[in-house]
Amino acid sequence: MIRQTYGHDQSTITITIDAATLRMMEANEIAFHYTPGVSQAYLSNGPIFRYDFCIATAQDFLAGQGYDESDGIPAEEELTITVALDD
Fold first, then answer.
1. Surface-to-core class of residue 79, CB atoms within 10 Å of its CB (0-12 exposed, 13-18 middle, 19+ buried)
2. By three-state DSSP, how is residue 28 classified?
3. Assign residue 29 a region: left if phi > 0, alpha if psi is -120 to 50, beta otherwise?
4. For residue 23, what are the contacts with CB-CB under 8 A and spacing of at least 6?
5. Whole-angstrom Cα distance, residue 70 to residue 19?
6. What is the H or E stretch that residue 19 is in?
7. Residue 22's closest CA among 60, 58, 57, 55?
8. What sign does the dihedral 60-76-69-42 (CA atoms) show?
9. Contact 57/41 with Cβ under 8 angstroms?
10. Between 20 and 30 A from 86 (CA), which of 15, 39, 53, 66?
11. What is the pTM of this model?
12. Element (H, E) at 61
């Protein structure tokens, strides 16, 4: 499960994932990347386009919720972070 919403002025994005997505990100070493001017961030092991940048890693989600590791996080738990977008 992945849910993305933008702040009212489009300068931030809030991303919510479930524990299964977090574990998939860790196992595959992928992160959320953002293309300026595009409406959604995407999961990838690196930027696809020249101006893309990484906005959230699995470690960012863990730290944002006060966890050190994903072991023991219930499958139904949702993890949310808000990231500033520097277009």
1. buried
2. helix
3. left
4. 70
5. 8
6. helix 19-28
7. 58
8. negative
9. no
10. 66
11. 0.89
12. helix 58-64
Bridge partners of residue 73, in order along the sequence: none
DSSP letter assigned to residue 79: E
- Rounded Cα–Cα distance for residues 56 and 44 (Å): 11
**How many helices and strands (H and E) does the chain possess?**
2, 6
- The helix or strand, by DSSP H or E, that contains position 4, with its residue range, turns out to be strand 2-6
Task: Dump pLDDT digits (tens) for 4-58.
Answer: 998 888 889 999 999 999 999 999 999 999 998 887 899 999 999 999 999 999 9
Q: How many residues does the chain have?
A: 87
What residues form DSSP beta bridges with 15? 4, 81
- At residue 14, the 3 state secondary structure works out as strand
- pLDDT at residue 82 is higher than 90: yes
Chain center to CA of 57: 6
